[in-house]
Structures are given as structure tokens and as C-alpha cells.
Design a protein that fits this description.
Layout lengths: L8 E2 L4 E2 L9 H10 L12 H16 L1
Antiparallel strand pairs: 1-2
Bound molecules: iron/sulfur cluster.
Length: 64
């Protein structure tokens, strides 16, 4: 979802009312997740599910 189409978007101040980020490109989503954490990425972000799955696989491999 694009922020401009979301009810939680403050268009006047150009920011998310929930303080989330919504990177549109995969590479940026990975970087954001690595630097400031997965929790900062919006639940409506198109890459979030893939990020969660990638992280889960990484944790499982690390636990072996
Ligand atoms: S980051 Fe998510 S919740 Fe916030 S305005 Fe954008 S789409 Fe909406």
C-alpha cells in the first residue's frame, strides 16, 4: 500500500501518524530492517511478509 492511500497518513506533514516507514523497494526495506528494526516497517508494506520469512529462516538456521 502507498502511504498516500492510507488513512494513517498525515499528508500535510508528509508522515505516518503511527511513526512507521514504508519502503517501496526491497533493497531499502532490507536496509531499514537491518538498521532500525523490522518493527519500524509498516504492516501494510509490500515487503514485510518476505522480510519476516527471511528472518525466521535465518533464526532457524542459526539455531541448528
Ligand atoms: S507507513 Fe503504513 S500505516 Fe503509515 S501511512 Fe504509510 S501505509 Fe499507512
Amino acid at each position: 500500500m502507498l502511504c498516500k492511500d492510507c488513512a494513517r497518513y498525515d499528508a500535510e506533514n508528509r508522515r505516518c501518524l503511527d511513526g512507521k516507514v514504508n519502503p517501496q523497494k526491497w533493497e531499502l526495506a532490507v536496509e531499514v530492517a537491518n538498521v532500525i528494526g523490522l518493527r519500524t516497517i509498516c504492516v501494510f508494506n509490500d515487503h514485510r511478509e518476505r522480510l519476516v520469512q527471511a528472518r525466521t529462516v535465518a533464526f532457524e538456521e542459526e539455531a541448528r
